[in-house]
From TrEMBL:
Organism: Micromonospora inaquosa
Protein name per its UniProtKB record: Acetamidase
UniProt superkingdom: Bacteria
Bilayer-crossing regions: none
Entries under Pfam families matching the protein: FmdA_AmdA
Length: 337
């Protein structure tokens, strides 16, 4: 590994992607590279103020753009791609959020109509103070405001799916995609199973912050400058997206209904904990049941997202996950966060 940043990729508007799969690569990278990617917000930068209603300034299917894909030279189907998020910085001093008539956890949706008027479409603009590390909420119908911690994250990141598929960037699934969990912050390593030669990594949809569950369906949407380091774990497959931090191992399930997403994440965490530690599977199940956490990522996207997590210090002498990829990439990018 070089330990040096290799390049910065800044896409033009017509270079943004709206699918995982079906795209030519924008650059070639290899395991050990550290590089920076400029990403646009989920609205493509078109929502800038209260008058910019997404239904009027945005056009389907051009929502939730990602930057990429990046062809990873040494990645083959059956491998795992490790992506360490070293730094995520808002590129503007503002972010936006919104409500939609048929989108969000507390309104009628296009799938399940209810006998009530649609929600009002409304835009909130958040001031971002990068030096203070704050994001300011300002109510639109009163003078209430409050500073929230800046906790930048990447909402959408993934690789190309297998089977010649192309999936909308709005959809989370086994390939990653619109995972929308605040655990995808700087300092986290994401593990994704490789489905095609070159993996075809892409990312976007930054949030200045997001509550667990993303109830209204929209975080504080931002463009970002994101620095990441990658590695390829040869011959090790990964079925569902996994995360590792200095403290935790985490697994992600994506499905509808929410119960299925929960089960996917829990099943993967129990199996991973057992494999790392040698714990018998029911002992691992019992430990995760009593010590684990299950934060919700989103309940609005085409698939719902649930995370399962457990503190690594509670596991009996766990072996290094993926050959110690998280620690290796963290050391490689030390000082970049």
């Amino acid at each position: 590994m070089t330990g040096m940043e290799t390049f910065t990729y800044r896409p033009a508007r017509d270079e943004l992607a709206y699918t995982f799969g079906g795209r030519m690569p924008v650059a070639h990278v290899r395991g050990g590279d550290v590089f920076t990617v400029v990403t646009e917000d989920c609205f493509g930068g078109l929502v800038r103020g209260p008058a910019d209603l997404p239904s009027q300034v945005c056009r389907l299917p051009y929502l939730n753009p990602v930057s990429g894909p990046f062809f990873v030279e040494d990645a083959e189907p059956g491998d795992t791609l490790a992506v360490h998020l070293a730094a995520i910085t808002p590129t503007r001093d503002w972010g936006v959020s919104s409500t939609f008539p048929h989108f969000g956890a507390l309104t009628s949706t296009t799938h399940t109509a209810t006998l009530q008027p649609p929600l009002e479409e409304r835009v909130w603009v958040y001031g971002i103070d990068r030096q203070a590390g704050t994001v300011r909420f300002q109510a639109t119908r009163s003078d209430h405001s409050v500073d929230l911690p800046l906790d930048a994250m990447i909402g959408t990141i993934g690789v190309a799916p297998g089977g010649f598929e192309a999936r909308s960037t709005l959809v989370p699934d086994t390939h990653g995609g619109n995972l929308d969990t605040p655990h995808l912050r700087a300092g986290t390593t994401l593990y994704l199973g490789v489905n095609v030669h070159g993996a075809m990594l892409a990312l976007g949809d930054g949030h200045a912050r997001q509550g667990e569950g993303e109830a209204c369906g929209v975080g504080v949407e931002i463009a970002t400058t994101t620095t990441l380091a990658i590695d390829v774990i040869k011959g090790v497959s990964t079925r569902w997206p996994r995360l590792e931090t200095d403290r935790d191992i985490l697994t992600i399930g994506c499905a509808r209904p929410l119960e299925d997403a929960y089960r996917i994440a829990q099943h993967d965490l129990v199996g991973w904990a057992s494999a790392l530690t040698g714990l018998e599977i029911l002992d691992a199940y019992q430990l995760v049941s009593q010590a684990g956490r299950a934060p919700i990522g989103n309940v609005c996207d085409p698939n719902y997202t649930v995370v399962a997590a457990v503190d690594k210090t509670l596991l009996p002498a766990p072996g290094p996950a993926y050959g110690g990829a998280h620690e290796r990439l963290r050391r490689l990018t030390a000082g970049l966060r």
